[in-house]
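Worked Example 4.2. Consider the chain below.
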Amino acid sequence: MSFSSDVKEELGKYVSRNKHCQIAEMAAIIHYQGQLTRGDSGQLQLQILTENPSVLRKSFTILNKAFNIETSEMEEECLQNHKNSVYTIVLEKEEDIMSIFREIKLIDKEGVLHDLRDCVNPEIIEDYCCRRAFTRGAYLCIGSMSDPMKGYHLELVYSNKIQAEQMREVLLKFELDAKIVKRKKYYVVYLKEGSHIVDFLGICKARVALMNLENLRIVKEMRNSINRKVNCETANIVKTVNAAAKQIEDIIFIRDFIGFSKLPDTLREMAQVRLDYPEATLKELGQYLDPPVGKSGVNHRLRKLCEIADLNRG
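Applying the procedure from the previous section yields the following structure tokens:
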């Protein structure tokens, strides 16, 4: 399975002990994957459609715990939708449906039934713990993550802007820098920072996934650090080799067209040592001189030799 699937598998097994948090999570499931239909006899039906078995299990569990609706009162179908199976939970008892809608405040005080595509009632997610449950339900239904070894990207895909903006506001309350982008006909709420995705998993209580992601981040950062050091060392080596090649080229020019005899003793000695030890570092070259000279002294003499060569090339 992918990392994203592992996260959903873990979240699907976690059920809050508090009824108000269970209701908040169920509100996300119904708003994002629920639909109202009419049966063959015209009776009202509430359907929850999902391709994810974790959503299926979570829905059964919460409906039983929070609403006392037994699974025997639900019908489960498995349909073929392109490559993926679509699981459908069907609730047909109107009193059960109305009970759920009252709990998630889809029916207001005047008895008006709101559209499932509307935002979740803010009263449902007023408490911190309920916002966490709501976020968990949202990720289960419409969330996904990229492979952390390839990059950090978490997103929740909405069919309308108003629901996407509500989720962005919720994530901002958790101090997560969520953004929205329109992708074709969808609105995508996304996080790009690895640290924010770690925090998101903590909010949803995906503790195992959080630890796995942190371990992957450590490995990735170590690799990046090693690569940076190797690249830096390689660049320094290339720079040193190029400088040495230029020095040797200038010294050979001085030898062949000017002659070492016209150089001061210190520069003549320096020129000969550089030719004798073409791969030596500045520190090593200084040790070959008599008396020994430090790196800055060696660098100064080599620079003077290069200046002499450049002046005489005209």
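The longest helix spans residues 207-257. Residues 3-205 form a domain with the Endonuclease I-creI fold (CATH 3.10.28.10). Compare this with Example 4.1 before moving on.
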